[in-house]
Amino acid sequence: MSKRTDSNSYTMIFAVIMVLIVGSLLAFMSSSLKPAIKENERIEKQQNILYAMGVNENDESSANFVSASIAGEEFAKYITKQIVIEGDKITESDDAYLIDVKKQQANAKEGKTRKLPLFVGEKDGKTFYVAPIRGKGLWDAIWGYVSMDENMVVQGAYFDHKGETPGLGANIKQRYFMDDFIGEHLMTASGEFKGITVAKGNNDPKNEEKTDYEVDAIAGATITGDGVSAMIKKDLALYVPYFKSLKESNKIKL
């Protein structure tokens, strides 16, 4: 007598077995691929940091990272110190670039002390201070790395996103937008932190004025631009005490 395969019980048993099989396969793949995923994340963070301080393979118009195969070597070459700022405590850590900025932001919302990673690099006789930032765009998360000198003048920037609109908000990672930030001042001469606003009504389309605390907005991407402005002002303001103490220590040395 042949088994009936059109009964409800057979269908349910078959479905349960398939779910178990597929679930097991997915769990196995996730577990086996986890080291490779973590390694790719590590390399990408190193590439982002290097890009912000001008270590990249840019051509005349497009933004290009250093190759993944040499990212670790270049990171060790150019990044001389990794700092973790935690309240009044400043420590050095070789793994500061692995700090999860999203998690640290959540900690701050819960009233916990937030860890702020800062990367000190040397290139062409200049010292660069690279800080990670993270915020919200139109559809999802946006983030970036901003490179500064000791006066919090921007030396370079890299921005990225999870799901902004192609051709509009997604253009925050285009070179023409990121390059506009180079030379922009984050603080006034008197030491007041102003940040940088991605301004729709900016009267400096060629971005020649570097002390107006503004860059030109991307047409049709107002909300994403507002998100970039907000994350710069919110996250980089947290580093002001460090830069002020840095200037004081430099004065003492002189």
Notable characteristics:
alpha+beta; 6-stranded antiparallel sheet; 8 strands; globular
Overall description:
This protein is α+β, with helices and mostly antiparallel strands. It has a domain at 80-253. It is built from 6 helices and 8 strands. The protein has helices spanning 8-52, 71-78, 101-109, 175-178, 222-236, 240-253; strands spanning 79-86, 89-92, 115-123, 126-136, 141-148, 154-161, 197-199, 214-216. It starts with 7 loop residues before the first helix and ends with a helix.
SSE topology string: HHEEHEEEEHEEHH
Helical segment tally?
6
**Biggest sheet overview:** 6 strands, antiparallel
Q: Any idea what the radius of gyration is?
A: 23 Å
Q: Give me the side-by-side strand order of the main sheet.
A: 2-1-3-4-5-6
Compute the separation of the termini in Å.
97 Å
Helix-strand makeup class: alpha+beta
Strand content: 15-25%
Q: How many DSSP E strands?
A: 8
Form type: globular
Uncertain segments are none
Mean pLDDT: 90
Which percent range fits the helix content? Answer: 25-40%
GO molecular function: FMN binding; oxidoreductase activity, acting on NAD(P)H, quinone or similar compound as acceptor
EC number: 7.2.1.1
Subunit structure: Composed of six subunits; NqrA, NqrB, NqrC, NqrD, NqrE and NqrF.
Transmembrane segments: 12-33
